[in-house]
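#struct-help
A.M.: can someone run this one for me? Single chain, 266 residues.
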Amino acid sequence: MSPLQSPHTWLITGASQGLGLAIAMSALKVGHKVIAGARNTRKAAEEHPELELLGGTIEDLEEPEMHAIMETNFFGPIRVLKGVLPAMRARGSGTIVLIGSTFGFYPCPSCAMYNTSKAAAEMLHETLMKELELFKIRTLIIEPGLFRTNVVTNAPQPVAGFSEPYLGTAIGKSLELVGNILQDPARYMPGDPSKLGDRVVEFVDRSGMAKDVAPRDRLLLGRDAVELYKLKLQSLTEDLEASSQMALSTDYDGHTGQGVSVVANF
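D.P.: on it. Structure tokens below:
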């Protein structure tokens, strides 16, 4: 990555560790100004900074635990957006980058609320893509796989533990994987955070490896992200093919309207 001719200001939340720190360092490396924030501006995040990857089944999680992870991964970013959007809209420029998750589109057993919070955040940002386009504000969703950060080591278990019947399901396999990651992160965590930081900055700046890449709404990072994305697309395609005929049979006879599909033209 080479220094830029016209640096920008990056506001990065959750920049004290993990992928947020990696992106901040990459932005600084090429000459951007970085305003770094830690994920502790709200009570839930102050008390539970590790809640980004809370595990547990829906049955085992207490409602306060569910609220806390939504505060951290969903409502916290909304508060930041509400603070910066007026200035960005007035200026008519800027890029909003969401660090999503592979598990926002391909669910991981034992991480139900984490999956849910990331999927909700991604849908919010997909909506912003359309709502902010006229103001020349770009929205980008980063879809990372598993990178070698402390995201797994910091992940707490539900206060109530795991119900015994679930341990013989996919949840048991997921917990076994977590154990393997903790014992041998070099083997099970393929992603290099510093490379992710470089790719994100390049994608936003349209430099380096992204110099000739047309602007896109999403950026997949990590071989595991690519593999799971393919599997999800395959599953969705099969669902579409299997249900299309039945879907088209439910309209009123003779009706030719397109329903809510017209929003694709907005």
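A.M.: thanks! The first helix runs from residue 18 to 29.
D.P.: also worth noting: The chain has one domain: 9-235.
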